[in-house]
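Collaborator request log, item 7. Partner lab (contact: R.S.) asked for a structural prediction of Putative glutamine transport system substrate-binding protein to inform their binding assays.
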Amino acid sequence: MIPATPHRRLAPAAAAATALAAALTLGACSSPDDVEAEGAATEETVGARTPEEIKEDGTIKIGSFSDKSPFGYVDENGEFAGYDIEFGERIAEELGVELEWVPVAAQSRVEFLESGKVDIILANFTVTDERKEKVDFAGPYMTVSFGAVSPADAPVEEDDLDDASIVIVKGTTQDAWIEENQPDWDVTKYEQYNEVTSALRDGRGDVWITDNTEALAFTADTDEFVTSIPNFGEESAIAPAVAKGNDALRDWLDELLLKLGEEEFFHEAFEKTLAPVYGDVVEPEDLVVEGGQSSDVY
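Returned to partner:
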């Protein structure tokens, strides 16, 4: 069983998001205020702290999405929930500190670590060579590849992408991959995940390219859209990230991942947060990584 969680506090930047918690779902519309709340800076920075310094302070700040269900989102009670959130709560419990969630947007994840606004990023963060130049990743806890969502009555297949109107979230792995490999594609970029899904519903795009885990989660509960391309591109790792050079915190996370692997923690997190969404479509072994691995492989 997943251990009891510590007290959860929203960062100051999440005040507006809490008031609008019901709207912070994948299908919600996004206002300018919502976008600002997602990417806003916290009032105090923490720098690149060691585990000991975090313990001494008594609070850890972790950046996560507030609109990417079922991985990191704010639920109807104004609480952070999801697969990434289970991991963050366990991190705080192991350190014996309170947990402060800081909402981040995809394009702000690196900046929040570089500027010391958070200690750790747990936001479906895919490991890439470009990101490794700016932040340090601990071992992985999930794998992912690309998937594509399109209307059920007009499914877009991989051969159709050259002529399709594509929508993506700015700052994601898909954004970087398309710019490098398919610069001639017709792509519209949005700041937030709920903006992309709204654009898809409004007919402002033919297909949404995202993580296949995200695509399958979005289409699992609707007949309006399908994951018409369930798997393409290279398989990548999802891992926690810390500030560049913060070896002490990264090494501590690697040790924790080994401990959690012995408990099969992420399988339990999958059953709690992802299985209700995926049903029989996705098996734990399709994406769960237990025990991490040495971050030296990155």
